[in-house]
Design a protein that fits this description.
single chain, mainly alpha
Length: about 140
């Protein structure tokens, strides 16, 4: 089921209303709460309050409450991720990587010719970005 290709009936069509009008939920609220809690709760300094959070996380990792093995695993993952860093993940792909294009030798052009060339390149790039609806993306 997860490997089945999506049908065209579920594909979003440009110009149609967004299937997710609210967008991705923001994590700002959690960050704001945690930042506020760290500044106002517990120890005397922000560093001491952060230390309390680290200790609580470590305690959960080594001594989970009864029937909370899933929380223990997540706490262990977090402790290891921040202590040692997450492991590097290899990326497997098929195909080849095309060679980088050779740089152009423009040494024969004078300043005015380079300026004209730049304007032409920028105009062409802007024309290619324009998708025909009159709105040119930044």
């Amino acid at each position: 089921m997860a490997d089945e290709p999506k049908s065209d009936s579920f594909k979003w069509v440009k110009g149609q209303p967004s299937p997710n009008p609210g967008g991705r939920p923001s994590s700002k609220h959690l960050r704001k709460f945690l930042g506020s809690a760290v500044r106002t709760t517990g120890g005397e300094t922000v560093a001491q309050r952060r230390e309390l959070i680290h200790q609580a996380l470590f305690k959960l990792a080594i001594q989970p409450p009864k029937n909370r093995e899933r929380d223990q695993l997540k706490a262990i993952e977090l402790c290891l991720a921040y202590d040692e860093g997450r492991p590097v993940q290899g990326i497997q792909h098929s195909g080849s990587i095309p060679p980088a294009p050779k740089p152009l030798d423009l040494s024969f052009l004078d300043y005015d010719d380079l300026k004209k060339l730049r304007e032409q390149v920028l105009a062409r790039a802007a024309a290619e970005e324009d998708d025909g609806d009159g709105d040119v993306p930044n």
